[in-house]
Amino acid sequence: MTRIYTFVNQKGGVGKTTTAINLGAYLAQLGQRVLIVDLDPQANATSCLGVDKSTVTGGTYEILLDLLPPDALPLHNERLKMSILPSSPSLAGAEVELVNELAREMRLRNALEKLDGRYDYILIDCPPSLGLLTVNGLVAARDGVVIPVQCEYLALEGLGQLTQTIHRVRTALFPDLKVRGVVLTMFDPRANLSADVVSEVNKHFPKLAFHSVIPRSIRLAEAPSYGLPISAYAPLSSGAKAYDALAREMLKGDGIKI
């Protein structure tokens, strides 16, 4: 059965898309069939994998509006051995167009059920907001939510708000929704604040914080401009080693032998 994880944080710039793309790339390197679902109208995940969002004619917008079948839309990258269900700016109108639709929060979940078994992992990259698109992502998170948290003080405040949203979705729409883990990103070993945030997250989520911590890295920041994950752009960098470790940690937690 396909494992479906949703990457969510309403605060922008915390490494959410970076984590979804690079974790997916290393899962693919380790033999998993991976699909990235770009649920953000900014289409950053799409661009990060070298797809020009202006050329996208079928993607998450079309499956949410039930305009095209989901199995015909993923784009496969043979070099990276992973696929993406791309986004485009048209996705920004989906929230308005779905307002009067029945079961509008279930659209993504229902669509991805048709892909069950085709992939080992489906990773959903949500927009930095708590609107209908993100709710669709949360409801589709059959195996849990992954929360990237930047190692800065304000990130902790946002984490509390996100926890409340997850609780509301769990109460109203998806009782089995759970948090798969918290990924600490942009860690700077020279800053006391980074260590303090790691300590606070481990205190509040003692069994949920991943041991693999993602460092602040110039190479990670550069890779998207080349349309590549860090595994292909700078495989020997500290960021690459961290995401490789995160992928292995996730597989071990999911009971998959490498």
What CATH calls the topology is Rossmann fold
Name of the CATH first level: Alpha Beta
**Low-confidence sequence ranges:** none
Proportion of strand residues: 5-15%
- Round the Cα radius of gyration to an integer and report it: 17 Å
Distance between the termini: 17 Å
CATH-assigned homologous superfamily: P-loop containing nucleotide triphosphate hydrolases
By secondary-structure content and strand pairing, the structural class works out as alpha/beta
Q: How do the strands of the widest beta sheet line up side by side?
A: 3-4-2-5-1-6-7
Helix content: 25-40%
The figure for the number of domains is 1
The count of helical stretches stands at 11
Provide structural commentary.
The protein is an alpha/beta fold. It has a single domain, classed as Rossmann fold. The chain is built from eleven helices and seven strands. It has helices at residues 16-29, 44-48, 60-64, 94-97, 107-113, 132-139, 153-172, 192-204, 218-222, 230-233, 238-253, and strands at 3-7, 34-38, 75-77, 82-85, 121-125, 145-150, 179-185. Strands 3-4-2-5-1-6-7 form a seven-stranded mixed β-sheet, sandwiched between helices. Strand 6 (145-150), helix 7 (153-172) and strand 7 (179-185) form a beta-alpha-beta unit. Helix 1 (16-29) crosses helix 11 (238-253). The longest helix has 20 residues, at 153-172. The protein is globular. The model has no long low-confidence stretch (mean pLDDT 92).
